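// run 5 | inverse folding | seed 20
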């Protein structure tokens, strides 16, 4: 498939500018500049004053149309099912956004004296109590801005813990071959050598191989459970025993916690450190670059290493305060206290759901995934590797390698063709251990009707792969941007041209 240009350009707002067009009437400058403001302005040295400001000139309607049109070029949770496995693209309730735009939240500054932001600190404190309850950890830092950021912090904590105990030889981090790519990356950034443990025929950590690998040099293991195949690590007790035997620590990658909510806790499984992605499981918007939040929780013996400040409550004085007086803290990992607005949204979501609601999230998301899997795995060209008869948790990974062999159509082609039908593409080619991997996570947000719609479209695309493979291979056909050259698109030197491949609707480049 050659590099195909996009079908139309949406001009930038600057290109749309018509000199003299007016959207908003501003008052004359002399009307505004009076009194104190005028005096303040006079104090600004001449050389620093801006003489002109080149802003696009458009009518209000043109602005509205421009941004509405741009928003329609996208596929989002708000436009259709977004089954992007390992990303938990659930519905983000609008009320969460409303709360963040409340003046009391919007206009606070992190450098305000704590007496004046007691409410905000209380939100963080209460959120932490809930996260502790959900995970079985002793304390959380809300600072990390993403899952990977939390992993990095977790690795720093593991290092600090071992260093404190004089265990300087521990330089190996074990990661399963089904792990999310951020796990080995974070461990490497924190200075560890990564060793990969294979999956067994059920898609779980190969216990025998693990047993052989683990020696005094092992600092820990990073695990996702249920793992990225959607399979629960049935030998978790054994894994905990093997790692703890050599003073190693267990890191739980809790980016996608849907399946466990109110059912099982990483702390009870024996994990020592957990990160959560509030921007996945706890329903704050993500995609398009954030902002995110990846709080890190730890067991008692690691609390001292969490970054400062921790949010504490002083019962005798009845106030919340920020504790910086912690000599073993690994240092700051993010400005101030993390992405506060994301914390507020997650807290609002948790309050609205309540404990029973969260249990239902677990049940509905696992049910949705298995309902869909049951149908999808019977489609021609689709196989389910690793224990094909056993159910999955919140997501499943099928292989389209049979389809590829029979038609030449790849998982990527199928994913692109789904875009034509308004569905976001599932995750593909991850985890790496599944050939032509096609990873679907429907989440609890989708109704049976929508799951059926997705299934029907997917089965039509697969039929099409057999009857008209070229149609699928050249997809997408109905989107604003066609198939782009992915190497060019992600290479810094060619980034600019590939961002500008849009041509005006109908005007083929
Ligand atoms: C998304 C994800 C991460 C990384 O989270 P970011 O917020 O994107 O850094 C890590 N592990 C798993 C299993 C994930 O799904």
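// decoded
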């Amino acid at each position: 498939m050659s590099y195909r240009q996009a079908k139309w350009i949406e001009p930038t707002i600057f290109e749309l500018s018509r000199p003299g067009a007016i959207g908003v009437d501003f008052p004359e400058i002399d009307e505004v500049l009076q009194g104190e403001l005028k005096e303040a302005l006079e104090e600004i040295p001449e050389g620093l004053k801006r003489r002109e400001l080149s802003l696009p000139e458009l009518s209000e309607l043109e602005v509205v149309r421009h941004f509405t049109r741009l928003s329609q070029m996208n596929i989002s949770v708000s436009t259709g099912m977004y089954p992007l496995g390992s990303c938990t693209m659930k519905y983000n309730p609008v009320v969460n956004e409303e709360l963040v735009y409340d003046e009391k939240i919007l206009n606070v500054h992190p450098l305000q004296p704590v007496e004046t932001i007691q409410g905000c600190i209380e939100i963080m404190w209460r959120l932490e109590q809930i996260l502790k309850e959900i995970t079985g950890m002793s304390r959380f830092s809300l600072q990390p801005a993403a899952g990977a950021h939390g992993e990095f912090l977790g690795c720093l904590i593991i290092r600090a813990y071992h260093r404190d105990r004089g265990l300087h030889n521990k330089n190996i981090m074990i990661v399963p071959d089904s792990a999310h790519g951020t796990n080995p990356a974070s461990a490497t950034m924190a200075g560890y050598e990564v060793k990969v443990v294979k999956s067994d025929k059920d898609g779980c950590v190969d216990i025998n191989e693990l047993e052989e690998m683990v020696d005094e040099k092992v600092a820990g293991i990073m695990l996702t459970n249920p793992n990225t195949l959607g399979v629960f690590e049935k030998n978790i007790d054994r894994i905990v025993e093997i790692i703890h035997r050599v003073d190693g620590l267990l890191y739980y990658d809790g980016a996608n916690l849907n399946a466990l909510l109110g059912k099982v806790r990483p702390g009870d499984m024996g994990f020592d450190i957990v990160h959560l992605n509030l921007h996945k499981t706890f329903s704050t918007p993500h995609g398009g670059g954030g902002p995110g939040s990846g709080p890190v929780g730890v067991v008692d013996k690691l609390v001292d290493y969490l970054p400062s400040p921790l949010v504490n409550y002083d019962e005798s004085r009845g106030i919340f305060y920020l504790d910086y007086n912690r000599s073993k803290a690994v240092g700051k990992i993010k400005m101030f206290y993390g992405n506060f607005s994301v914390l507020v949204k997650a807290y609002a979501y948790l309050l609205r759901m309540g404990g029973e609601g969260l249990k239902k999230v677990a049940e509905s998301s696992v049910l949705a995934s298995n309902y869909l899997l049951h149908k999808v795995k019977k489609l021609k060209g689709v196989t389910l590797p690793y224990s094909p008869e056993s159910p999955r948790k919140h997501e499943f990974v099928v292989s389209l390698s049979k389809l590829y062999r029979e038609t030449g159509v790849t998982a990527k082609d199928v994913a692109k063709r789904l875009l034509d039908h308004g569905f976001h593409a599932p995750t593909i080619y991850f985890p790496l251990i599944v050939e032509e991997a096609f990873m679907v996570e429907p989440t609890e947000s989708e109704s049976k009707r929508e799951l059926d719609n997705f299934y029907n479209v997917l089965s039509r695309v697969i039929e099409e792969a057999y009857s008209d493979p070229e149609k699928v291979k050249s997809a997408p056909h109905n989107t604003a941007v066609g198939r782009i050259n992915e190497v060019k698109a992600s290479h810094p030197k060619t980034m600019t041209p590939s961002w500008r491949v849009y041509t005006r609707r109908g005007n083929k480049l």
